[in-house]
Amino acid sequence: TIYYAYSFSAGPIVESPRAETARSRLTEALRSPSKKLTIHPELVLPEPSDPTALLLRASEVTKLSQIIRTKAKANAVFVEGTVDALAPMGKEQETARGNFPGPVPIIYSWKNPDNGGSGLATCLEELSRVDGVEGVLVPFFGGAEINCVESYL
User: Fold this and answer.
1) Treating both helix axes as pointing N-terminal to C-terminal, what angle do 51-70 and 83-95 enclose, rounded to 10 degrees?
2) Among positive and negative, which fits the CA dihedral 80, 83, 85, 89?
3) For the segment 3-55, what is each residue's pLDDT rounded down to a tens digit?
4) Does the CA dihedral 109-7-132-122 come out positive or negative?
5) pTM
6) CA distances from 18 to 3, 21, 27 (A)
7) Helices (H), strands (E): how many in the chain?
8) β partners of residue 44
9) Cβ–Cβ < 8 Å for 51, 110
């Protein structure tokens, strides 16, 4: 998870070690020096309404995570859903650390612009406890379509 812990003193701005590691992993995953095609699937993990589906969700998300890493050979994965649904994917990816293929960086797609900054702060707090999450994708301009620069200003 990319959390920037900046020092607002008169000295230089310093990132936390975790933020530096996340930045490095994301840069490596999202850039292709050989100009080859890279795969970054986007997943939506819905909240199940059926109690049985809720019990099976963790094992199915774990299986999907392993398939994305080993068979699809994705470079990173964008995931939308609840933080609870994301946790099994993060755990599975972290079990691959030191193996081949290694873990795929997870980028959480935050889709709650109505709550504003307080919702994002709560989400970041929850994500800090999930392994494997290297970044958060925050919608720009509330997710609304921008037709021209003037509509943003």
Assistant:
1) 40
2) positive
3) 433 333 344 455 678 778 888 888 888 777 777 778 889 999 988 888 888 88
4) negative
5) 0.74
6) 8, 5, 14
7) 5, 4
8) 80
9) no
CA 77 to chain centre: 7
Closest CA to 142 of 109, 117, 113: 113
Degrees to nearest 5, angle at CA 100 with 26 and 21: 25
Other beta carbons less than 10 A from residue 49's beta carbon: 7
Instruction: Express each pLDDT in 53-92 by its tens digit.
Output: 888 899 999 999 999 999 988 889 999 988 888 999 999 9
Please give the Cα distance from 112 to 25 (Å, whole number): 26
Distances (CA, A) of 118 to 13, 34, 74, 122: 25, 41, 32, 6
Angle between helices 83-95 and 116-127 (to 10 degrees): 30
